[in-house]
Specification:
Radius of gyration: 14 Å
CATH architecture: 2-Layer Sandwich
Helix content: 10-25%
Largest sheet: 6 strands, mixed
Strand content: 15-25%
Number of domains: 1
Length: about 130
């Protein structure tokens, strides 16, 4: 299994559509055996989902994510664990232990004309309205 996490400085980046890095975790027998970081070259929900699919991701752990991105991930067969914050390593470990609190649906529902969030979507990411 390969788990992708939106990533910035060891933490889960809180806005899927604006992430500049993904941390990939290869899991075998319930433990992480390899980590690597990738930088997507394309922007947009479909492009980001395609990057994760091409990288072999089976699931994504992230903070905020909109319904368009959720749909793109579903179409690629990538499972979603949204609404997560904190250390990316710790989140993956909690997922593997079955103790990760997350939602499997979008949690960002409105975007302004510039593509930034114009609302509160239940997480403190500091990237709204930019």
């Amino acid at each position: 299994m390969r788990i992708a996490v939106t990533y910035e400085n060891g933490e889960i980046f809180q806005h899927f559509g604006h992430t500049e890095l993904f941390r990939l975790y290869d899991v075998e027998d319930g433990r992480v055996v390899h980590r690597m970081t990738i930088r997507p070259k394309n922007a947009g929900h479909e492009a980001m989902a395609a990057v994760l699919k091409k990288a072999g991701a089976d699931m994504l752990i992230c903070g905020g994510i909109g319904s368009g991105a959720q749909q793109a991930l579903e179409e690629m067969g990538i499972r979603l664990c949204a609404g997560v914050s904190g250390s990316s390593d710790a989140a993956v470990e909690r997922f593997l232990r079955g103790t990760l609190n997350y939602t499997s649906s979008s949690n960002c529902t409105a975007h302004d004309a510039e593509g930034g969030c114009g609302h509160e979507c239940g997480h403190d990411c500091g990237h709204h309205g930019s």
